[in-house]
Write a structure and sequence with these properties.
It contains 8 helices and 5 strands, in the order αααααααββαβββ. The two termini are about 65 Å apart. The chain is an alpha+beta fold. Strand 3 and strand 4 form a beta hairpin.
């Protein structure tokens, strides 16, 4: 049974003649399958139907010197190709077209399967990134709860210590009055159980400089809102940046831009090296106000 040419087969399958000729030429006339792969791969491109350059320019564009048939032009090629060409019967043409359509359908299925695998891989990567972000947020929440519990324990301990100092002061005052009035403390009005502010005694030593282990940071966002959080004084500045990136909210357009932290006064832009330094070393203890600015891409 006589076979259709590759160009005729592509035209029988419904491809425009110009597009079929272009596919065959750009694939080096390697057969109908290579041409069909090119057609399905480039079917959505806007210039798919633009004509090819001259045969001389086309051969050089494909990285080879043009052949004698290309230099002779389409007239010579057409006259040569037309000589001795077998004529197909209607049944043979239908059978040939059927085989080509089956090949097209197979190529289409392979393309759909490949696109489905790529879509599944993109979805898997998206879920993985979401899980990593969720885990980071959970770790941050756990750190916040732990810091809050430590802060409550510290405040409770300071309150108990203050009450103990007041009780000891009351006992010392009672002992001094008993010694001064010879034990006739009962004839004098008893002091209230909860005295007012205790005046400082000249004999007391001046209080030493307090060492802070907590740092309260207020962060002003570009949209005018602000975030406030307590960090340990020995934590790195990178912890503040991570907190801002997780709590500043979603921005329109999808991906979040990286941020840069600035100090209000004196004006200072913190570098990547500063992110590894503790808050105490950067002078942000016991409290500080930072400004968030979008980092320009390098």
């Amino acid at each position: 049974m006589a076979e259709l040419t590759a160009l005729e087969s592509l035209i029988e399958m419904g491809f425009p003649r110009g597009r079929a000729e272009k596919a065959l030429a750009l694939t080096g006339n390697q057969g109908i399958e290579a041409a069909m792969d090119w057609l399905m791969e480039h079917e959505d491109e806007p210039d798919v139907d633009e004509p090819l350059p001259t045969p001389l320019g086309l051969g050089r564009a494909l990285g080879r010197e043009p052949t004698v048939s290309e230099q002779s032009g389409p007239e010579g090629t057409g006259s040569t190709a037309g000589e001795g060409k077998p004529v197909l019967s209607e049944e043979e043409r239908q059978e040939q077209t059927k085989r080509m359509l089956e090949l097209v359908a197979q190529k289409q299925r392979e393309r759909e399967e490949r696109e489905e695998r790529e879509a599944l891989e993109r979805e898997r990567q998206r879920r993985k990134q979401g899980q990593e972000l969720s885990a980071a947020r959970q770790r941050l929440q756990e750190d916040e709860m732990r810091r809050a519990a430590e802060e409550r324990r510290r405040e409770k301990a300071e309150e108990l210590a203050a009450r103990q100092r007041v009780r000891e002061k009351i006992e010392r005052d009672k002992a001094e009055r008993a010694k001064k009035y010879g034990g006739n403390v009962g004839s004098r009005p008893s002091p209230p159980t909860e005295p007012g502010p205790v005046p400082s005694s000249p004999s007391q030593e001046p209080p030493s400089k307090r060492e802070y282990d907590q740092c309260r940071i207020q962060v002003r966002l570009p949209d005018g809102t602000s975030l406030t959080q307590t960090f340990r004084a020995r934590e790195q500045l990178a912890a503040v940046r991570l907190y801002v990136e997780l709590h500043r909210g979603e921005e329109p357009g999808g991906d979040q831009d990286p941020v840069q932290l600035l100090s209000g006064f004196p004006r200072r832009a913190f570098s990547e090296a500063d992110m590894e330094r503790p808050l105490q070393e950067l002078g942000l203890v016991p409290s500080a106000v930072l400004i968030v600015a979008k980092k320009c891409p390098s």
